[in-house]
Structure formats: C-alpha cells, structure tokens
Amino acid sequence: MSQSIFPRRNKRVIVPGFDPQVQPIVPSKVLQPLSQASLQLDFICSAFDCPVEWEVEPVFSDSFQADALEGQDIIHAAVFFPLVQRPSGLHVLFTRRASHLYDHAGQISFPGGRIEPSDHDAIAAALRETHEEIGVAPDFIQLIGTQPGFLTSTGFTMKPVIGLIRPGFTITPDTTEVAEVFEVPLSVLMDTGLHRLHEAQLPGGGHRFYFSISWKSYFIWGATAALIRNFYHYLAAAQARINP
Questions:
Q1: For residue range 128-164, what is the model confidence (pLDDT) as tens digits?
Q2: Any idea where the domains of the chain sit in the sequence?
Q3: Which fold has domain 3-9+35-185+222-239?
Q4: Would the pTM of this model clear 0.85, i.e. be above it?
C-alpha cells in the first residue's frame, strides 16, 4: 500500500512502478475452505473472544511483525476492517479513493490513517479515521478485535481493527478523499481460490510479491489484500480448533 493511502498529512508521492493488474501470477498453496458457519458473526466474535494459536500469511511473515517496530522512519497507522450484517450474510465495507488524489487515485482500501498523538491507541485512530472518511460514528461500531500490524513497502505499519457496523448507520463520504464506498460479501473475500499471488519485477531491480482479489469491477491488492488473507488464516485456525 502506498503512503498516499493516507494523504491528509503526507504529500509525498510514491508510486509502485508497475501496473498491479497485469503482473504474472505465481503458484500459491491451496488452502482449506471455510465453512458457512465460520463466516457467521457469532463464530467470528467467539474466535476473538477465545484467541486461537495460528500463523500469519507465510509469504509476508516478516511484514506481519510490524507491531514491534519503532524508529523515525516507521509511521504507525491503523485501518478499520468493517463487517456489515446483511440478509445474505456478512459483507466487508471498502472505500475507493477519489480520482484526483495523487498517483494512486482509485485504489481500494479500508478506512484508516496515521495514529496521531491525540489518539489513545490504534483502535481510537481507526475509529476516528472511519468517522472522518465515511461518516460512521463510533457509536455505530461494535469492536471485535485486532490483528497483527503489517509493514508496507513504504514504511507504514498498518494495524487492522476488526469490527461490526451496527444497523442504522449512514454513509457520508468525505468526497475530498473518497470516491465510492462499497461492500463485498465476506464469503467472496474468504474464498482463497479467488486469491492471486503476483510477482512484479521492480524497475530498479529486485521483485515484489503481493496478493490480489478481483470482484466485479474491483481489484483489491497490496496491503489491503494481505490483511484479508491474514483474516482468513485466523478464521481457518479457529475452525480447525472446533473441527480438528
């Protein structure tokens, strides 16, 4: 995820140097599917209430050690992983960045931003940013838990905060940053058969791996896709605890 994901307080333009939608797909491990029961709100809440032993996505095991990082070059940020209950099942809410914002215009992400000195912690930052970006007040959010922070290639540590947006909420996007707010069924995001692992050759040499998930016209990739992949691993471990 580019630093330009958090544009209010960071004007430095950083581009990936490649088109993420056309990079080669490389083989990745076939993973156990989740049952429908494991995609229900009660199951997810219980999984966080009674934490399970699990392992982060192995492709990014080093990047998911971000919670322990400090230093002047590290910028701590938090994102909200918003679940929404619909009649058809749980959905996940995303934003698409406004088209006039720097080089990563149109990129899909979770609501979020830097953890400011005025924020008590990552959870407070994620809730504040969600309110600022899409107009959902903290009163409408039921916190579920957090997951390991992810170190991006541009020096941000992204701490995911999982929560449910309660019924009755309204979306009021900050149009200076957000072009669209949309939902994807959780069952789609947790179908690892739709996860694609790419390897991009970088202009300056070397390479970069990243996951992507395509749904309708949306292309979710980079750190956002990595957090989705990690969420799958946690639910899979919780499912295995019940059905070893």
A1: 999 999 999 999 999 999 999 999 887 889 999 999 9
A2: 3-9+35-185+222-239
A3: Nucleoside Triphosphate Pyrophosphohydrolase (3.90.79)
A4: yes
